[in-house]
Write a structure and sequence with these properties.
Layout (H helix, E strand, L loop, with lengths): L3 E8 L5 H16 L5 E8 L5 E3 L7 H4 L3 H7 L4 E3 L4 E4 L7 E4 L1 E4 L10 H9 L8 H7 L2 H10 L7 E5 H6 L1 H8 L6 E5 L9 E3 L2 H12 L4 E6 L4 E10 L4 E2 L4 E2 L9 H7 L7 E4 L2 E4 L6 H18 L3 E10 L4 E8 L7 H6 L4 H20 L14
Parallel strand pairs: 1-2, 1-7
Antiparallel strand pairs: 2-3, 4-5, 5-6, 8-11, 9-10, 9-11, 12-13, 12-17, 14-16, 15-16, 17-18
Bound molecules: adenosine-5'-diphosphate and magnesium ion.
């Protein structure tokens, strides 16, 4: 049997480049190659945005041992032929054209998870795993996602957003707009992840400094009120039309002011009873919440998924004020790191089953979109 070729795209020009390599190799390529019906084709975009395709790029040692630069120097970047599907051309090789059947994006953050890649894949007309461009764009802009939530009656902490240039040109006007928000406040670049350039501030001086910091990383900035008595939870969800939630998970914080990049990816968070180490550090799985609150959080996350029009897979993050028993929407990750495979595993879905279901959802979605008319006969040209 000819195996379907699944092109796994990872890396790219993003602060989350390195996390993407691990997601692609450990959580996607490995299980794909354990199946009977699929074969993974690694497609790596380097930090400068050059595309490469070579079987050795699925070997983690190439990246962890710092050999990647030397290896890529020996390869020639691939070309993409746009007509009739996603066809890679490997310059210089005899059997140089490689037709990919389904794309599995494994890119996190900018130039990949943010909708750019998805727009291109739709234009090429190839099936791909996960959300399309519009839902990706909404999810990867923290202000747009919150606007969508607020409009749909989903609770989210009060916020103001503005462009970095507006702040640099007229700081006073922006500070006036921020006056209505109550400290403590969180300042965030709207597009980044991994807590990069996010600050929690309690006075105006720190607020100005935090906005200046965020402005180094993004053109758009959001300032929002902090949720007190905080318990954070996250829910991985799968599906196109019928949704399947995994388990509500509670990442455990260190004593630092909040969750930062190192807590998430390097030190592994706080250990303790009933905790488990996932790709994102230690967490309680399932989250330790009163039953009613657990159910409410799950329902809010599912509603966010629907309202944003997410497809395939995503992870919805919520902030809970445990004293007030209020659940707030925080943000969405349309392409969760490691696909949150540890959580799916505990919810009864193995990594192999997870990637197989996601590929099937991609194919179903592709078929569903084909049913929409793109041809409309008119007399427009004849009348010209
Ligand atoms: N409004 C808020 N109230 C309380 N804590 C917050 C708030 N916003 C963010 N945080 C804390 O900051 C962390 C990072 O913010 P988040 O919006 O999730 O950005 P990232 O995309 O970097 O994950 C959260 O995981 C949470 O610990
Ligand atoms: Mg987050």
């Amino acid at each position: 049997m000819n195996k379907l070729k699944i092109g796994v795209i990872f890396g790219s020009r993003s602060t989350e480049h390195d996390v993407s390599i691990i997601t692609a190799i450990a959580s996607i390529i490995k299980p794909i190659n354990l199946t009977e019906e699929y074969e993974a084709v690694p497609i790596y975009i380097d930090k400068l945005g050059r595309w490469y395709c070579d079987p050795a790029l699925a070997d983690i040692n190439l990246y962890t041992k710092d050999n990647i630069g030397n290896y890529l120097a020996k390869l020639r970047p691939v070309l993409l032929e746009l007509n009739g599907g996603f066809n890679l051309i490997k310059p210089g090789l005899k059997d140089k054209k490689l037709k990919i059947d389904v794309i599995f994006p494994a890119t996190h953050g900018t130039h990949g998870e943010d909708g750019e890649l998805m727009g291109m894949l739709d234009l090429i007309n190839v099936p791909y795993v996960g959300s399309e461009m519009p839902a990706s764009v909404l999810s990867m802009d923290k202000s747009l996602a919150k606007i969508m939530a607020e409009f749909s009656g989903i609770p989210t902490s009060r916020f103001v957003f503005f462009y970095a240039k507006e702040f640099l040109n007229n700081q006073q006007a922006i500070m006036m707009r921020l006056k209505d928000l109550n400290f403590p406040l969180f300042v965030k670049p709207v597009h980044l992840g991994s807590s990069i350039a996010i600050s929690r501030v309690t006075d105006n001086k720190a607020l100005v400094n935090a906005i200046e910091l965020a402005a180094h990383y993004d053109e758009k900035i959001i300032v929002e009120e902090a949720v007190n008595n905080l318990v954070e939870v996250t829910l991985p969800i799968m599906g196109n039309n019928e949704l399947k939630p995994a388990l509500l998970e509670q990442p455990l914080l260190k004593d630092e002011a909040f969750f930062d990049f190192n807590t998430k990816y390097m030190s592994g968070g706080k250990k303790g009873k009933n905790t488990k180490q996932g790709a994102q550090g230690y967490s309680k799985l399932p989250a330790d919440l009163p039953k009613g609150l657990y159910k409410e959080a799950e329902e809010i996350a599912l509603k966010v998924y629907r309202v944003l029009g997410l497809k395939g897979i995503a992870r919805v993050d919520l902030l809970i004020d445990l004293k007030a028993k209020e659940v707030y929407f925080n943000e969405v990750n349309p392409l969760p790191g490691s696909l949150y495979a540890h959580n799916w595993q505990q919810a009864g879905t193995s990594s192999v089953s997870l990637i197989s279901q996601l590929i099937k959802l991609a194919q179903e979605r592709f078929e569903e979109k084909k049913e929409l008319n793109t041809i409309f006969e008119t007399n427009y040209l004849k009348q010209y």
